[in-house]
Fold this protein.
Amino acid sequence: MLNNLGTIISTFLFGKKIGEDNFGNIYYLNKNNKRWVLYYKNNDASSVPPEWQAWLTYTVNDLPNKKDKKKKWQIKHEPNKTGLNYIMKKNKQEKKNEISSYNSWKPNKREN
């Protein structure tokens, strides 16, 4: 939190809230047309949806509109979950519930 203190003060003094996404990230703009985001939880750039990423990087100037119709081939954006603990826990639970069709080989005991 302390490493973001300057950003938070600058945001409240000079930033104008422009919008918010489904993940709770809030997007700001200042009078010099500088754009930035305050992340909801972790500073994770993968939590920024593509339409907001395009706005942040000046690829588009129009603000993302929630009413924009998505193509049917487009999927819902999800942040990168690589390495998170709950994914590993979920995988362990799935393995416990999984019925295996594989049987390992067990050698017969040899009599001397």
User: Anything to note?
Assistant: Strands lie at 16-20, 26-29, 35-38. The mean pLDDT is 80. The radius of gyration is 24 Å.
